[in-house]
Specification:
The protein is 11% helix and 37% strand. The protein is mostly beta strands and 227 residues long.
Length: 227
Amino acid sequence: MKRSEINSAIKWAEGLCRKHHITLPFFASLPANKEEFLKPSRVNIVKTMLGWDVSDFGGNDFERLGAVLFTVRNGSVKEAGVGTPYAEKYIFLKDGLEQEIPLHYHNEKTEDIINRAGGVFCCQLAAKGEDGKPDFTKPVRVLRDGEYYDAAPGEIIEISTGNSITLERGVYHRFFAKTGCGDLVIGEVSKINDDNTDNVFAVVRERFCGIEEDEPPYRLLVNEYTK
């Protein structure tokens, strides 16, 4: 992705937060200066990758394949006692362009995905076949706000504001905002995770994209703190 595209996406997400009266923690607005993040008092921010995350998943078409994410809290899967024993994120998706987070599952993470504000959250599920690939011939049982729900094969579940879905590890899923219903703010509450290792995509994808530096960074991304 171009740095200008990343900068624009973060500014858009910040505007969406203001619109819905969501206030992010102080490190969301730190200058794009590595020294700010490498202060000894902020070691947990760096080690658990808290902050901004923008990716097109290597598809070079951010308007249709990609998302802005912000990790509020997380723990380390490598170092005991670092961070928190749980994780929380915000995910920002645009309406009207079919922008999506592509089909994937997690090796370790179980997560609650919550429609926090804005549009209608769409989630498509698939079972993981014996070959590890998505199997759209089988139903998938999930929890929706504590209630069991049996999703038909390939069903797209629509989740309105305030409601959520629980995704167990090994369940394939993809997210997008329903067209015509508004930009979407999703919340994620989960087990701690390492985004470098825990995402398995149905089609080979890059979790963190390369950056073409066409202008100075507005905010640093979580994978840039120690580069």
